[in-house]
Amino acid sequence: VYFDKDNKWVYTSWDVRVAEIPAVVKESVLVAYPDFVIDDVDFIERETGNFYEVELDKGNATVVLFVTPEGEILDSSTGEPGTSPVVSDEMRLFLKEKYPGSVIIDYGRNANGMLEVDIMHDNIEKDVYFDNEGNWVYTSWDISPASLHDKVNAALAATYPQFYVDDADYIERPEIVYYEIELQDGNFEKVVFVSPEGEILNE
Question: Counting C-beta atoms within 10 Å of the first and last residue's C-beta, which end of the chain has fewer, N or C?
Answer without folding.
Answer: C
